[in-house]
Structures are given as structure tokens and as C-alpha cells.
Amino acid sequence: MIEFKDVSISFPLPEGGRKEVLNNVSFKISRGEQVFLVGPTGSGKTTLLKLLYMENRPDKGSIRIADFDSETIKKEEIPFLRRSLGIVFQDFQLLPDRNVFDNVAFALYVTGKTGKAVKMKVLQVLSRVGLNHKKNRFPHELSGGEQQRVVLARAIVNDPWIILADEPTGNLDPAVADEIQKLIIGLNQQGMTIIISTHDYRLVKKFPSRTLAVSNGTIVEVDPASLGS
């Protein structure tokens, strides 16, 4: 499903030179896996996710996501790659002037879908995340946990193969974070491949799965039980 092969990426520094983020990184993630990416802030977790949806490109090496390859993909093909991905952001990025229904429906409208098919699909995914009863509410009327459920609904409404979640519980208290993680586990059990970037080691240890640690430009597989608090 996903393969990084000898991937390196760096970014220019204001004072000159470059900051190396990943150096000669290789790993694979199989279809249907749930994987945590852990590491301190600034270690490169978000950069790695951006490489997956090809907002960033590697300086060298290659990234393969299903049938898409960073070395051969054309610019006009990137939107088709991104339609196969569901992306969950820490800061929600909901449209403040649209209600819950329209925030989720927007992800369908941009792919050209209209009419009854949109309504049925949106109501279906809102039911999956437990928010059908809040479909007419606006983001400012929701709790943080409810807003993140809307973000999850928006991420899955196009039936993606892969969910990329960047600190999805970072702004939530532990009890609400656990609820969101249980929803994500449910999506994984339904067949979606899940990659979760987090620095919440409590969450990783409570809901253990394959864990990759990003540090000093490298990625190593670690035992969740070995992580600190």
C-alpha cells in the first residue's frame, strides 16, 4: 500500500544552508494496518504526512502509494491521489460559515457529486461518527470533540483507502481523545489503512499498534510499551 524507499528531504534555513528532516528513510505499510508516528515536535512527522499527499516532494528517493509513485506522478494526477486519502488535521479546518452537513458535503461537491447522492452519503457518515443529530449546527456551536468528529466524517465521506491523521487528539482532553481514537480504530477495523501522527504516548500505549518513531532524520520501529509518559 505505502512504501518509502531511500527518502531524504530538507528545507532551506533563513540564515542559509538547509535543515535535514528525513535522511535515507525506508519503510513499508501494508493495506489495512494502523500505524502511529511518534516523535517530538519538529521531528518530521508532519513533513512525512505531506510527502504522502505530495504537498512536499523528496529531494531523493521515491514514495509509492498504491498505484501512485512520486517519481512518475504528473501534477494533474495529484488530485486523484488525494481523493484516495482522508486527511484529519489537529486544528479542524472546518468552514465557520457552514453547518456540519455542509462542511462534510463540501468534500463531495469538490469532486463533482451533487443531489440526492450527496445527501445520502453525508447522512451516512454523520451517523457513523454519531453526529446526525447535530447536522444543522455550526462549528462554533460544537465542542472540540464534536468538531473532530466532523473532521473525521469529512475525511471518510469519499471512501478513502487511507486516513492520514496529524495530531488528531492534540487539542482534546484525555477522555475525548480516547473517544476519537476508538472511532479511528473502528474505521481501521472496516478496512481503512490508518496513519496517526501523535506525541501523545498515553494514547499510543492505551491503544497499541505498530509504532514508528521519527527522530534525527531517521525512522525506527518501537514497542509502544517502551515509550515514556
Can you tell me the CATH topology of the domain at 2-84 and 160-226?
Answer: Rossmann fold
Helix content: 25-40%
Q: Mean pLDDT, as a whole number?
A: 92
Q: What are the secondary-structure elements, in order, as H or E?
A: EEEHEEHEHHHEHEHEE
Low-confidence stretches: none
Secondary structural class: alpha/beta
Give a brief rundown of this model.
Helix content is 31%, strand content 27%.
Summarize this structure as a short list of keywords or feature phrases.
single chain, 229 residues, alpha/beta, Rossmann fold, six-stranded mixed sheet, four-stranded antiparallel sheet, 7 helices, globular
Describe the protein's architecture and organization.
Helix 3 (100-109) runs parallel beside helix 5 (144-156). The mean pLDDT is 92. Helix content is 31%, strand content 27%. The protein is α/β, with parallel strands linked by helices and 229 residues long. The strands form 2 sheets. A 6-stranded mixed sheet has the order 6-7-8-3-9-10, with helices on both faces. It has helices spanning 45-52, 78-83, 100-109, 116-128, 144-156, 174-189, 201-206; strands at 2-12, 18-29, 34-38, 60-65, 68-69, 85-88, 162-166, 193-198, 210-215, 218-222. The protein has a domain at 2-84 and 160-226: P-loop containing nucleotide triphosphate hydrolases (Rossmann fold, 3-Layer(aba) Sandwich). Strand 4 and strand 5 (68-69) form a beta hairpin.
